[in-house]
Amino acid sequence: MFKNLTPVVKNILLVTVGAFVITTYFMPQLKNFFALYYVQSNRFFPSQFLTYMFMHADFWHLFSNMFGLFIFGPLLEQFLGPKKILALWMVCGVGSGLLYSGYTAYRMSQLDDKISQFYSDPSPDRFNDFVKDNRHLFRSGVYDFVDAYSRNPEDPGLVQRAKENLMGVREIQANIPMVGASGALFGVLIAFGMLFPNTQLFLLFPPMPVKAKYLVLFYGLYTVYNVINSNPMDNVAHFAHLSGLVIGAGMVFYWKKNRKEFY
């Protein structure tokens, strides 16, 4: 099985797995430094657009991404060549980080608008709506505070505590890191589906054969669904997955259009 590994795919696997072992068992503090943060966070560094894709939350996160590369990467490398498969992986990974950061900035601007509205016109209703929209970032005790604030809406102490709660949530949201090579993997996935659309793949769950183009279509639609129906409790960066699909498709379209370079 491992004899079929191509050089670039093998090196990506080794580097990513090595980074996981080091940051999990020897130097866990590096994960916070290499993960990708919101661009206005004091934890953000531009180098994180590259390093975040070599970090993973846990073993299963690492396994799912590396297993996908292990399955789809070698054939793509044989067909595209080592330079293009490396470019595909890196451009989709870095590009996904950049686009996701833009998406995060948009969401943060929405959050800031709601906070500004509360500061301009503090009220229990506004605060309660904010709690409902961001309940995953509040502690359970906030509901006791909501009740107390609703009973005494003019109390300056409670108004100040409400403002502090809002800014605390903003601080938490701004410092939620993104890690993982999923954007890069989704670029590889769509490239495989576009170049080998009728290749039969055998799924483990459920155990059935499916053509590559249908598998890619399913993942694409599922990703779009999750982006549109954003679940605040979901810690998966679906927009980064979608970004990887779009960037990967664009690269394959470009290569196929430039036939002399492609073949």
Automatic annotation (TrEMBL):
Superkingdom in the source lineage: Bacteria
Membrane association type: Multi-pass membrane protein
Biological process according to GO: proteolysis
Keyword Oxidoreductase annotated: no
Localization terms from the record: Membrane
GO MF annotation, one: serine-type endopeptidase activity
Main location: membrane
Family that this chain belongs to: Belongs to the peptidase S54 family.
Protein name per the record: Protease
